[in-house]
Amino acid sequence: MKPDLFEAPDYYQLDDLFSEEHKLVRDAARSWVKRDISPIIEEYAQKAEFPTQIINGLAEIGAFGPYIPAEYGGAGLDQISYGLIMQEIERGDSGVRSTASVQSSLVMYPIYAYGTEEQRKKYLPRLASGELMGCFGLTEPDHGSNPGGMVTNFKDKGDHFLLNGAKLWISNAPFADIAIVWAKDEGGRIHGLVVERGMEGFSTPETHNKWSLRASATGELIFDNVKVPKENLLPGKNGLGAPLGCLDSARYGIAWGAIGAAMDCYDTALRYARERIQFDKPIAATQLQQKKLAEMITEITKAQLLAFRLGQLKNEGRATTAQISMAKRNNVDMAIRIAREARQVLGGMGITGEYPIMRHMMNLESVITYEGTHDIHLLITGADITGINAFK
Ligand code: TGC
Ligand code: FAD
Question: pTM of the full predicted structure?
Answer without folding.
Answer: 0.97
